[in-house]
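Contributing: when you submit paired examples, paste them exactly as shown. First protein:
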Amino acid sequence: MIVPAGVVGQAWRGGGRQARLARLLSARDVLVEPLTDAGARAAGVLCGTAGTTDVIDATVVLTARRFHATVISSDRDDLEVLDPTLRVVDC
């Protein structure tokens, strides 16, 4: 499982209520993909091209493209604006 670092930031609030999320993120088969300068710029370009503003959604799309991955999300509509061919499983 690959989780873009920005997605962690959107979900993380700290404290004991996040124990399950903390366990998931520290699992051996989970990669938290860092947001680099190049990745941030690419996300900005994708947002500009699609006419959107959510850089985190753009990083999700770019990460899925890079790893040929399916996305699990409750934001299908927002993601499909960025890439209508994206494979999304609703949660």
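Second protein:
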Amino acid sequence: MKDRAKARGMGPILFALVGTLLLAGCAGVLNGNDGSVWDRGDIRDDEFSLQINNQSFNEARIYLHWNGDRRRLGSVGGNQSRSFDLDWSARTLRIEVDFLAGGGFISDPVTVNPGDDLEFRIPAHAR
């Protein structure tokens, strides 16, 4: 009888442990991790990558806006692409494009997380 009572007492503990592991797995999927919650080798701490694809004929200077701060990233030639590996500073990022020939624009805010791979396209008709 003691063993049976002991086994009944273990049921809720095992259920709680399995439930916790399932919730952890779901959280990993919801956070954008396609692999197991234990497989985090591909996520870099506090970094993300940004590819700028300039489909415009004009060369563009690129600036990042993090929490109100403006930081120059670099230049991307007309009809060229360039990749940047960046330190993550905040969840919200805006990208400013300043064409050397004049004109430019600032993007809408985008949410960024460490480990993200983002692509930003400058349309051919942008001014």
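If you have annotations for the second protein, write them as plain sentences, like these:
The helical segments are 2-30.
The two ends are 81 Å apart (CA to CA).
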